[in-house]
Specification:
Distance between the termini: 24 Å
Largest sheet: 7 strands, parallel
Helix content: 25-40%
Structural class: alpha/beta
Strand order of the largest sheet: 3-2-1-4-5-6-15
Strand content: 15-25%
Shape: globular
Order of helices and strands: EHEHEHEHEHHEHEHEEEEHEHEEHEHHE
C-alpha cells in the first residue's frame, strides 16, 4: 500500500486521549504507551485526569470541557491525533472533531452511536480532506471491527455486494457507567440498510438463532444495529446491511444491579468472551470473516491504537472522513492484531491486496 506523506505536528506522535480516565480510555492510554507513542491526557474531570497521570509519570495532562472552545483549542494544540474515548459521543464528537481538524490533527473515536457517526461524516466530508487529515469515527469493537471484517471478506473481488449480515455474540455483559449513560442519551431510531439506503429498523423482529463459532456456539440473537451499519454503508455499496446481538447479555445490560467489568488478569481485562461473525453475500457467493477474543472494552484499545499508528505512519488510502475499511487494508490491519488481541479467521483469498473502488455516501 502506498503511504501518504504526513508532515508538521502530526509526525511527532503525540496523541490526545480525551476521556483518558474512563474505563476504555485507560486501556487506550496504556496501549499507546506500549507502542511508543505519547498520550496527552485530557477530559472534563481534572481530578480524575490527575489520578491517571500519577500512574503514567511524565505524560502531560490537559483538562478541557467540550463546552469550552478555547480550552479544546489549547488541548489539541501540537498533537498528532485525537482519540476520543468519552461518551456520550453525541455530546463530545462534534466539538472534538472540529477542534482537531482546525488544528491539523487526525480525529478518531470509539462510538457505537449511529447518529454520532452520521453527524461526523456530514460535518467533515470536505474540510478534513482539505486539511489533509483523517477523521475516523467508530474505530472500536462496535463499528470498526465489523467494518474491517466485512471489508476483508469483500477483498479484491470487485463484484457487487448484495448483503452484509453481522452477528455479535457475547457470553456476558458487564456494562460500564459510560455505556449506561450513552444508552440513556441515545434515543434515536436504529438504522439498517435496505435497498441501498439507511432506514429505521421499524417493528421489532423476533429473535433468530445464530450458530457462532466456539466458544459461544448456538445462541438466540436480536436485531440491534450499532455504528457498523453506518460505516459499512459509507463505502461497501451493499443493498442490505443488518446487525444482530446475542439476546442473553442484554438482560444484564438492562439490569441496573449488574456490576461493571472486573479485571481477571494483569492487563485489566474482564472474563467476558465475544465472537463477531460477519457474512458477506457478493455476486451470489457468501464469504465469512470471524473475530473472537476477550472483553469488548479492552479490545477497543488495540483497534484504535493500530488505527492511530497507521494514520501517523501514512498507511492510509486517503484523507478525509472515512470508514475503517476505506482507510486501511482491512486484512493486513486484522492480521496485525491476531492472535495477541484477536483471533481472526478470514476467507482464503481475503489477504490479496484489496484495491477496489469504494463508494462514499
Amino acid at each position: 500500500m502506498e503511504r501518504i506523506s504526513l508532515t508538521g505536528p502530526r509526525a511527532r506522535g503525540r496523541v490526545l486521549v480525551y476521556g483518558a480516565y474512563g474505563h476504555t480510555g485507560r486501556f487506550v492510554v496504556a496501549e499507546l504507551v506500549r507502542r511508543g507513542l505519547e498520550p496527552v491526557l485530557s477530559g472534563r474531570n481534572a481530578h480524575a485526569l490527575a489520578a491517571v497521570g500519577r500512574g503514567h509519570p511524565g505524560l502531560e495532562v490537559r483538562p478541557a470541557d467540550v463546552g469550552d472552545p478555547a480550552a479544546l483549542e489549547d488541548a489539541v494544540r501540537g498533537v498528532a491525533a485525537v482519540a476520543n474515548c468519552a461518551g456520550p459521543f453525541l455530546d463530545t464528537a462534534g466539538p472534538l472533531a472540529a477542534a482537531a481538524v482546525r488544528a491539523g490533527a487526525h480525529y478518531l473515536d470509539v462510538t457505537a452511536e449511529q447518529p454520532s457517526v452520521q453527524a461526523t461524516y456530514r460535518a467533515h466530508g470536505e474540510d478534513a480532506a482539505e486539511a489533509g487529515v483523517v477523521v475516523l469515527p467508530a474505530m472500536a469493537f462496535y463499528g470498526g471491527l465489523a467494518d474491517l471484517l466485512a471489508s476483508a471478506a469483500v477483498g479484491g473481488r470487485g463484484g457487487g455486494v448484495e448483503e452484509v449480515t453481522v452477528a455479535m455474540g457475547l457470553d456476558r455483559w458487564w456494562p460500564t457507567e459510560g455505556t449506561r449513560l450513552t444508552g440513556s442519551r441515545n434515543t434515536a431510531p436504529r438504522l439498517v440498510v435496505a435497498d441501498g439506503k439507511l432506514v429505521p429498523v421499524g417493528a421489532s423482529a423476533p429473535p433468530r438463532v445464530w450458530d457462532f463459532p466456539a466458544p459461544l456456539g448456538r445462541q438466540k440473537v436480536v436485531r440491534l444495529p450499532f455504528s457498523e451499519v453506518v460505516t459499512m454503508h459509507r463505502h461497501l455499496g451493499a443493498e442490505r446491511i443488518d446487525s444482530y446481538l446475542s439476546e442473553a447479555p442484554l438482560a444484564e445490560l438492562r439490569d441496573p444491579a449488574t456490576s461493571g467489568p472486573e479485571a481477571v488478569d494483569g492487563s485489566g481485562r474482564s472474563a467476558q468472551r465475544f465472537v463477531v461473525d460477519v457474512r458477506v453475500l457478493a455476486d451470489g457467493v457468501e464469504h465469512r470473516a470471524v473475530a473472537s477474543g476477550r472483553d469488548i472494552y479492552a479490545v477497543t484499545a488495540p483497534l484504535v491504537a493500530e488505527a492511530v499508528t497507521r494514520v501517523l505512519d501514512g498507511r492510509v488510502r486517503a484523507t478525509g472522513a472515512l470508514a475503517p475499511g476505506q482507510a486501511f487494508d482491512a486484512a493486513d490491519f486484522l492480521d496485525a492484531l491476531s492472535p495477541w488481541a484477536l483471533t481472526v479467521e478470514l476467507p482464503g483469498d481475503a489477504r490479496r491486496e484489496p484495491e477496489r473502488a469504494t463508494k462514499t455516501r
